[in-house]
Amino acid sequence: MKRLLLTIYLLIGMSSSQYAQKVIPLYNGKIPNSKEIAGLKDTTIVYTAGEKKITVITRVANPDLTIFLPEKNKATGIAVIICPGGGYSGVAIDHEGYAIAKKLNENGIAGFVLKYRLPDAKYVNNKEIVPLQDVQRAIELVRENAKQWGINPNKVGIQGSSAGGHLAATAGTHYLKSYIDNPLKTNLRPDFMILTYPVISMADSLTHIGSRNNLLGESVSPEKIKEYSNELHITPNTPPTFITHAVDDDAVKVQNSLVFIAALQKNKVPVESFFYAKGGHGFGMDNPTSDVQWIDSCIDWILKTNKK
């Protein structure tokens, strides 16, 4: 099937995407596993958490990528696809999406914020694979358009926060199976992963139960729990990983990151961690309890990992 050149639309006047450069639809034509519902539109809520205003898209009708390209004189050729969190019931598009992309841009790294579909059976079929389809499509799109965006197709990483961290880790551990139409056989393996207070495991003792229920349902089989427990799918070919988490996180247990790190180390996969004593869950790029922010160490790590 012949690839059509994607039309790029400028985002104008949208306060929640004030730093966005452009947005492209994730798919041309029919969106796989989406139910055809006339007039379906995104639904967004805004709430306050402390001093932060949190914007969450709670229904995604049309998945897309918001593209942040660095100034050409700063560009490193490195790209990061960003998967905001939201418990698989929403996409926290601003503080876990656009803000991170802007920071990456300042350091010469392209950012692609993924507005992925949520596993809601009212709007999609085969709900458990829909977010993974969208992230694989994002990787496919970025690699296939790398030249026009000034990106090295061998320096495309993925970042995710909370449930978005589970999605990113799933992309980094389940890449051998294509869940999308991939006629050019484009490589779907991220070159590196960045996981921010991630949901990793679906096991009863570790998982964030809301994320698991939203993705897999309340009556989940032991086989499905194993399939989506990403610590069980690490191999020596798993991408190098940067992980950050707060020890006092009472929503997603820090043990999620610890078991992932242990499995990476067992398989001799390079991993760097950045732990906070405090900070709780969902702090995004800036942990208010600390003067030192994970994103600065992470950017150094990205540049070092992609130096060759």
Automatic annotation (TrEMBL):
Looking at the record's lineage, which domain of life comes first? Bacteria
| Segment forming the signal sequence | 1-20
The record's InterPro entries line, in alphabetical order, gives: AB_hydrolase_fold, BD-FAE-like_dom, GDXG_lipolytic_enzyme
- All residue ranges annotated as the BD-FAE-like domain in the record: 65-263
Establish whether keyword Secreted is in the entry.
Answer: no
Task: Indicate yes or no for the key word Hydrolase.
Answer: yes
Keywords of the record, alphabetical order, are: Hydrolase, Signal
Name the Gene Ontology molecular function terms of this record: hydrolase activity
Q: Which residues cross the membrane?
A: none
Give the matching PANTHER family: AB HYDROLASE SUPERFAMILY PROTEIN C4A8.06C (PTHR48081), PEPTIDASE S9 PROLYL OLIGOPEPTIDASE CATALYTIC DOMAIN-CONTAINING PROTEIN (PTHR48081:SF6)
Q: What is this protein called?
A: Alpha/beta hydrolase
Q: What is the lineage of its organism?
A: Bacteria, Pseudomonadati, Bacteroidota, Flavobacteriia, Flavobacteriales
